[in-house]
Amino acid sequence: MRSVIAAFSPAERACAGAELVKIALGLPAWRSAKSLMLFSPLPDEPPIGELLNRSIAGGKITCLPRYDPQSRTYGAAIVTDPDKDLRKARYGILEPADSCANLPLNQLDLVFVPGVAFAPGGARLGRGRGFYDRLLTMVNGEKIGIGFSQQLLSKIPTEPHDARVSAILTPHDSWNLRTAERS
Question: In angstroms, rounded to a whole number, what is the distance separating the alpha carbons of residues 102 and 59?
């Protein structure tokens, strides 16, 4: 899967990212969310950074994951100004600075979740460290996997501790897994 994603041209990535942003902004879960958590895309993840700006501009409590070395887990930290609030941290990921306030994970209405691959039943293949699996168990809100269309597979390996997403969003398709609706 990583080699498939690595083969995308910058133009293909940009086009897919723009389509994902457009689709995400039209979701009922986006419109109704008062608090949400996005992710800072790595080079092999969809470029959805525009959602951060749109969320803040829309008055939503907007969070990104921040690593806590004490607990060795990620939590949600509030971002109000990306230019001032973000710094490069663990694994080269942009994270909120220590000065950004935390938001309890159970107060998030919506979380967009990256992955290496997804399957229609809500299965998600991450990067193998279980950070999102542990984080998602604390989230009561909607959990939407977001990726390139090529990352949606008919089946992926899972283990009992793997957290599932409630919907999957790709540039060409989206699935609400609670209602089994495809749009």
Answer: 17
